[in-house]
Amino acid sequence: MANPEMNQKENKIIEIATFYVGDALCGIDILNIQEINKQVDVTIVPQSPDFVKGVLNLRGRIVTIIDLGKKLGLSPIRPSKDNRNIIVDSQDEQIGLLVDRISDVLTADSSKIESPPANLGGVQGSYFKGVLKTERSLIGILDIEEVLKE
After folding, report:
1. 124: pLDDT confidence band, cut at 50, 70 and 90?
2. Alpha helix locations (H) across 8-141?
3. What is the CATH number of the domain that holds 138?
4. Are 1 and 54 in contact (CB under 8 A)?
5. pLDDT at 1 over 70
6. Cα–Cα distance between 83 and 87 in angstroms, integer?
7. CA-closest candidate to residue 45, choices 90, 96, 86, 100
8. What pTM value is reported for the model?
9. Domain interval for residue 12
10. Which of left, alpha, beta for 110 (phi over 0: left; psi -120 to 50: alpha)?
11. Residue pLDDT, tens place only, 57-114
12. How far is Cα 5 from Cα 94, in angstroms, rounded to an integer?
């Protein structure tokens, strides 16, 4: 279900941080991001869901790291030097989204964001607020709260 705020045709300029999960280009409104880091030393949490990579200590706060590939129903994130954790705030808890690699920050007119299809590149459409078409690609704009639901 699309977010009604994203469907309003108001000319609001937003910045979108883009990143790759496998070959899928995704984006998050930059206002939802606390930081991006490359800390990959996580502590495994026994009996956690398979998409939970583990937890890490980020300046005294425990942050749960989610393998975004597994969570979205795609291939797990392949370990590489390009992996990054996108730290977002969700319901007063910091969550890290492990992605394959970071791309660009784009400025876009929110009225250009279209409703997401029911299935976007093999991913359930409910995980997305919308899609943004650029000259070179189609960017799935993630709905963070929907992705982080159990």
Report:
1. low
2. 68-71
3. 2.40.50.180
4. no
5. no
6. 13
7. 96
8. 0.86
9. 4-147
10. alpha
11. 998 999 999 999 999 988 999 999 999 999 998 888 899 999 999 999 999 998 999 9
12. 24
Burial 55-87 (b: 16+ CB within 10 A, else e): bbebeeeebbbbbbbbbbebebbeeeeebbbbb
Per-residue model confidence as pLDDT tens digits over 50-67: 999 999 999 899 999 999
Counts of helices then strands in the chain (DSSP H, E): 3, 12
| Domains contained in the chain, number | 1
**Residue 28 to residue 145: CA distance in whole angstroms:** 11
**Cβ partners under 8 Å of residue 46, min gap 6:** none
Mean pLDDT of 139-147: 92
Query: Residue 19 and residue 130: Cα distance in Å, rounded?
Result: 15
According to DSSP, the β-strands at 24-29 and 33-37 are unpaired
